[in-house]
Amino acid sequence: MMAQKTVFRKKLIKFSVITTVFTGALACAAFGLMGSSAWAVSPNDTKTPFATPALSPSEIKDSYSFGIVPQQAARKLARLWAPLLAHVGKEAGVTLVFRTAQNIPEFEKRLAEGAYDFSYMNPYHYTVFQETPGYKAMVRQRDKRIQGIVVVPADSEITTLAALDGKTLAFPAPAAFAASVLPRAFLKREGITITPKYVSSHDSVYGTVSMALYPAGGGIMRTLNNIEPALRDRLRILWRTPKYTPHAFAAHPDQAPDIVERITQAFVTLHETKDGQALLEAMRFGPLTRAKDNDWDDVRALKIQELEGFGPKEKTVAR
Fold first, then answer.
1. Cβ 112 vs Cβ 269: under 8 Å
2. Which residues of the chain have pLDDT under 70?
3. What is the distance between the alpha carbons of residues 293 and 163, in angstroms, rounded to a whole number?
């Protein structure tokens, strides 16, 4: 069954790449297949510096989907990730095709199905999908520890978490680790009752809170720093969570070990070149390092229950 799924995914990637070659940027946008080591610029796209890719037939057999957790809008993710994946793919001798999903729950569904050859996923997702379908850790940020934040409007009178009691707060998704799971768990432990409203992405949290549609919301520093300065100036950080092992770059278990090694090596040597350093800085990443499965034991120790829809119902961090 796993072999059949792999063949199907490879056929799907081949079909999508051919579609890209013959229909151009608009069709690519519809299927969400942005990112490669070659670029085709749509004549209608005057604002996006990195548009949709064009892959030659000779590249098709070396194309691999790379699923990125949708913390931000797909267009913004493509602009950030496509150059990095293009560079890494070139160094590894393969084409890495940018993929994402319209929201985090859909991304979780695709991870559960093993839809991505490679993926960048949050720490909680890794502990779940390492078990089934068996994604394997490759890389993580070397010096980074992920930390959630709770933001409020810049002019809000709220100065303590206790002031949030009884209010509705915005979060990206139930299983967004640092931006949702950690803040909600801490609030529950402190006896602060809130109603979570899931708005699909970090950007949506920042936007709705900045407009005072919600009094507060959860996020992380990297996505907060990546939004427009004018929007960021309308927000204030109220509270920060403890720190944990950051997001995982992981490979689907069906991927050949030599391919995984080539891609891993390309990631961990990025900081050794000027171009690689620039790409990491654009992502607000530090140097990357090889990862081991037990790097995420600190997350497992939280004993977070299984994802909604894949096991028992939600689920908060054990005290």
1. no
2. 1-61, 305-319
3. 39
